[in-house]
Write a structure and sequence with these properties.
The chain has helices at residues 4-61, 70-84, 184-190, 236-245; strands at 88-89, 92-93, 98-105, 113-114, 124-134, 143-144, 155-156, 158-167, 171-172, 180-183, 191-192, 197-198, 200-201, 206-207, 210-214, 223-226, 251-252, 256-259, 275-282, 289-305, 311-316, 325-326, 340-344. It is an alpha+beta fold and 346 residues long. The protein has two domains: 14-167, no CATH class; 171-339, no CATH class. A hairpin with a 5-residue loop joins strand 20 and strand 21 (311-316).
Length: 346
């Protein structure tokens, strides 16, 4: 049997071992606590930087147009930088970021920002990318840690990136459309898809003046027709109300629109001019039928003429920012002069 002295020595050794384990455990726990405090702070700062990057990207993209010039790209960059300076992170006023303009592919192929010098397709949107950081030499420098320095991490770099782009209108919300449907054939004649501009009249150097007459009086694709959108109605008062109020429900590319019957000469007296409008485009203006919308095209109506062969006259326009429109819809839109306000795409 062990005597009391042996038992005391054994207990003493066990207590010493437990103390060492407790000390090691406490050190590890302090390390975890230190990391959790500093990482939690870094995550808060990252959210602040993300908000700043989002706001700056949207502000910069608000300066973009579908047909951009070097001046437009420069204005977008300037606006984004100014927006960065309105924000704070961890109490530090932000002053700088990395701003890149170009084109962003919504398909992700190619990935990342493309040069401003490319010829974009319908999936490549004018965009601006903003990265805001708290790092050495930027916006007050890296974050100084409170506790993580105990384990050798004295600073943390934090950054956030946002990309905002303008897009093409694929969805027309209530009130955004004028109740005249035109043919895709007409748009193809008076819109130059290779330049993204209206077709130019060589005699004037300006976009062609276009007369959009009723299908009952104008032949071979040079016509339009009153439409009541997703309501089957052929009376004049319904169309007059739609001239004032626009489409009552949301319509997308691929949605059907009703093509009215009859000329309805008196309606032409209800069109106030000049006015810029967004027109639904259909493949065929076949009266008394539903036709799918294939595009939305902006048009400036200069005059509206009643008579034996009534028509509205005007020209197609570019860089038109209509109200109550959005991206998406039932198909891939093409650029016909209109675009929607910027959205965050990354």
């Amino acid at each position: 049997m062990r005597n009391d002295a042996q038992l005391a020595r054994l207990v003493g050794r066990q207590r010493g071992s437990i103390a060492i384990y407790v000390a090691l455990f406490m050190f590890v726990m302090m390390g975890f606590i230190a990391l959790s405090v500093d990482i939690g702070r870094a995550l808060v700062v990252r959210n602040e930087l993300q908000n700043a990057a989002d706001a700056a990207a949207l502000a910069g993209a608000g300066q973009l147009k579908w047909t951009n010039t070097p001046t437009t790209w420069a204005n977008a960059t300037s606006k984004a930088n100014a927006a960065i300076a309105l924000n704070y992170a961890d109490g530090q006023a932000l002053s700088t970021g990395t701003v890149t303009t170009g084109y962003w592919s919504i398909t992700g192929s190619p990935a990342g920002m493309q040069s401003t010098t490319i010829t974009p397709n319908s999936n490549e949107l004018p965009a601006i990318q903003v990265t805001v950081s708290r790092a050495a030499g930027s916006n007050g420098g890296s974050l100084q840690t409170y506790f993580a320095g105990l384990i050798g991490t004295k600073t943390i770099d934090v950054s956030a990136t946002a990309v905002a782009a303008i897009a093409l209108p694929g969805v027309a919300k209530p009130g955004s459309l004028f109740p005249t449907a035109i043919t895709q054939c007409m748009l193809g004649i008076y819109w130059n898809s290779s330049t993204g501009q209206p077709t130019i009249d060589p005699s004037t150097g300006q976009p062609y003046d276009v007369k959009i007459g009723s299908a009952y009086h104008t032949g071979s694709c040079y016509y339009g027709q009153w439409t009541t959108f997703d309501t089957v109605a052929n009376d004049t008062q319904t169309v007059i109300n739609l001239i004032t109020n626009g489409n009552p429900t949301t319509l997308s590319i691929g949605s059907n629109t009703w093509i009215d019957t009859g000329t309805k000469n008196s309606i032409y007296n209800s069109v106030s001019t000049p006015v810029q409008v967004l027109l639904p485009v259909v493949a065929s203006v076949s009266t008394g039928s539903n036709q799918p919308i294939v595009a939305f095209a902006p048009f400036e109506i200069d005059k509206s003429v009643n008579g034996a062969n009534p028509y509205i006259e005007g020209h197609f326009i570019v860089n038109y920012l209509p109200t109550n429109v959005g991206p998406g819809g039932g198909g891939t839109p093409s650029y016909y002069g209109a675009y929607v306000p910027p959205v965050l795409v990354n």
